[in-house]
Specification:
The protein folds into two domains: 2-121, 3-Layer(aba) Sandwich (Rossmann fold), CATH 3.40.50; 126-220, Winged helix-like DNA-binding domain superfamily/Winged helix DNA-binding domain (Arc Repressor Mutant, subunit A, Orthogonal Bundle), CATH 1.10.10.10. It is elongated and about 55 Å long. It has helices spanning 10-22, 33-42, 59-68, 84-92, 105-121, 152-163, 171-178, 187-201; strands at 2-6, 26-30, 47-50, 75-79, 97-100, 126-129, 132-135, 140-143, 146-147, 206-211, 215-220. It is of the alpha/beta class and 222 residues long. Helix 2 runs parallel beside helix 3 and helix 6 (152-163) packs across helix 8 (187-201). The strands form three sheets. It has a five-stranded parallel β-sheet with strand order 2-1-3-4-5, sandwiched between helices. Strands 6-7-8-9 form a four-stranded antiparallel β-sheet, with no helix packed on it.
């Protein structure tokens, strides 16, 4: 899942991005209001983590523009602005959650999981297919109760295929969702990831079918 992090404190931004990437998310960082406004207007993200004290264009204005364009992107405000009225203003403008700095990393991770679970998984905590069980909170996969060992790329591909299991996912779309600005995934690399993941899913009676001209889809083995 793809997160855009709008934070002008580079040290904090890099630290948060590292934590989120270690959790398996793709993260892009922007440091000013116009940058985040342009980024969310041009690309698809699953979550915006928004600092309010951004230079040039305030975070509240960014949020207002986002909602005026009709975009439903979930927004988690993370800011040093304390006080009930600031929180009320942010939520009324369309934020989905509000945190004040300083905060504990486990709390941020839990709020991110909760927002993505609601938006992406319709509040389901587990996705079951064949004998595979995928926990949407921990992002752990199990086959017949045994933990499935996956690389970060394999986990990302599995997450996407389970999320969009009713429609084929094109290579272009998967590569776009898995790539951040610093690290693009090539089609060759994606094919290798899919091949390895397909092998690991065989014990769950699942396969990843390549549909010519359409892309990949996860299916039960008939």
């Amino acid at each position: 899942m793809k997160i855009i992090l709008a934070e002008d404190d580079r040290f904090l931004a890099d630290g948060l991005a590292l934590v989120l990437r270690d959790s398996g998310y793709t993260v892009n960082i922007v440091s000013s209001g116009p940058e985040v406004d342009q980024a969310v207007a041009a690309d698809n993200y699953d979550l915006l983590i928004l600092d309010l004290g951004l230079p040039v264009l305030d975070g509240m204005d960014v949020l207002k523009r986002l909602r005026q364009r009709g975009q439903k992107l979930p927004v988690l405000i993370v800011t040093a602005r304390e006080g009930l009225q600031n929180m009320v203003n942010g939520l009324d403008l369309g934020a989905n959650d509000y945190m004040t700095k300083p905060f504990q990393i486990p709390e941020l991770q839990a709020r991110v999981r909760a927002l993505l679970r609601k938006e992406v998984w319709s509040n389901r905590t587990e996705i079951t297919m064949g004998s595979l069980v995928f926990n949407t909170a921990t992002r752990m996969a199990y086959i017949s109760g045994e933990s499935l060992e996956l690389t970060s790329r394999e986990l990302e591909v599995l997450t996407l295929l389970l999320r969009y299991q009713d429609v084929p996912m094109s290579k272009d779309r998967i590569a776009n969702l898995l790539s951040d600005w610093a690290d693009e995934i090539s089609f060759n690399a994606l094919s290798i990831v899919v091949h390895r993941l397909r092998k690991k899913l065989e014990p769950a009676n699942l396969t990843i079918r390549a549909l010519r001209g359409l892309g990949y889809r996860i299916e039960k083995i008939q």
